[in-house]
Amino acid sequence: MLVLGIETTCDETAAAVVERSGEGPGKILSNVVFSQVSEHAAFGGVVPEIAARAHVDALDHIVTKALADASLTVRDIDGVAAAAGPGLIGGVIVGLTTAKAIAMVENKPLMAVNHLEAHALTARLVAGIPFPYCLFLASGGHTQIVAVRGIGDYTLLGTTQDDAIGEAFDKTAKLLGLGYPGGPQVEKEATRGNATRFALPRPMHGRAEPDFSLSGLKTALRLEAQKIAPLNDQDVVDLCASFQQAVVELIQDRLRAGMKLFRARYGVPTALVAAGGVAANEAIRKVLQRVAFEGGVKLVVPPGELCTDNGAMIAWAGAERLALGLTDPLDFAPRARWPLDEVAGPQTKPARVAQQGA
Ligand code: KG4
Ligand code: ZN
Fold first, then answer.
1. How far is CA 96 from each of CA 38, 41, 114, 125, 341, rounded to the nearest angstrom?
2. Pairwise CA distance, residues 13 & 36, whole Å
3. Rounded to the nearest 10 degrees, what angle do helices 233-266 and 282-294 cross at?
4. Residue 108 and residue 350 in contact, taking contact as beta carbons nearer than 8 Å
5. C-beta 281 within 6 A of ligand 1
């Protein structure tokens, strides 16, 4: 089964073709990502209107390249998937409308994919792991611990009460004048810094419910920086290292709580799975490894380019849904907000199941 996937929810314009042949890992035939970072850099963050226009300019070319790289034409694919949310609505409209046009003209099934679901299922694309698994999803907009028990069967175990972890990295970078996107910059600077120089808080530490809070940490960092301003190079790298260390310890504690809750409710997970841009961070990968080891489960972290936004994850989620007959109508509305636990699965399509049983 060959599926074309389109991703335009934030600042990457991406398209890919993925092949799924039964259970087990999939095959990425092409994966084209055009990052708009340079267009937003001057503003210190993503400007929604600029993003939407840049998607319009780039997407046709990116889709053409994805098909060419896979040595396929649009007639060869079995379905087309697009991220239909959550995200910046202008960009979502561009990607979903393009997918609908292809689906209509070529008479192919459409899969309107939830962007978070695509992050959640990437571990199955790369490693073919069975359900149920414990997902740690950390990106610029989301920080969640999720019980993934099937396609469309996602239970939120914990989430952030304020900022997302990626957002905290981005704000730290902005505060320290490191540019956008912040995560990779802060990680790079942190490798040269002293992680014990600044005593920063670990909010929510020790609580039984696996939720996160980042805003206290962000404020504490700003106050420390103000105390010693103007900052020299050593101050910046020490602040980065201290911040990253606090985040690492926070993730360790919160994920331990999350794994405990998962076991109590659902038994032993098949794996601890990480997804989203933050999982590209090496120090964070190490602590995930530790938590998985303690819990006696394997850790699955997709390679960095599949943790950040890409078309392959959308194509794969589309292929998983198509395999179950979960296609969407051409009037499916784009969604700015679309929580993962509101994604429909086979169990929420009673009409079809009832007909089959009858
Ligand atoms: O999943 P993603 O590409 O886009 C969203 O859906 O948000 O995640 C982007 C986020 C940004 O906040 C970025 O700063 C963060 O992931 N990020 C990182 C690293 N690489 C990306 N955070 C920490 N360390 C990294 N190496
Ligand atoms: Zn994402």
1. 24, 26, 11, 22, 21
2. 8
3. 30
4. no
5. yes
Instruction: Walk me through the domains of the chain, giving residue ranges and CATH numbers.
Output: 2-124+308-342 (3.30.420.40), 131-305 (3.30.420.40)
Phi, psi dihedrals of residue 80, rounded to the nearest 5°: -125, 130
- Taking only the tens place, the pLDDT of each residue in 242-294 is 999 999 999 999 999 999 999 999 999 999 999 998 999 999 999 999 999 99
Stated pTM of the model:
0.92
CB–CB of 302/31 below 8 Å? Answer: no
pLDDT in tens, 57-76: 999 999 999 999 999 999 99
Task: Give whole-number Cα distances, 222 to 197, 240, 270, in Å.
Answer: 15, 12, 40
Between CA 23 and CA 26 the distance in angstroms is 8
* Ligand 1 centroid distance, CA of 140 (Å): 5
For ligand 1, atom 3: residue with the closest CA: 308
- The DSSP letter of residue 154 is E
Task: Of 10, 32, 4, 28, give the one whose Cα is nearest residue 111.
Answer: 4
Cα(242)–Cα(265) distance, integer angstroms: 35
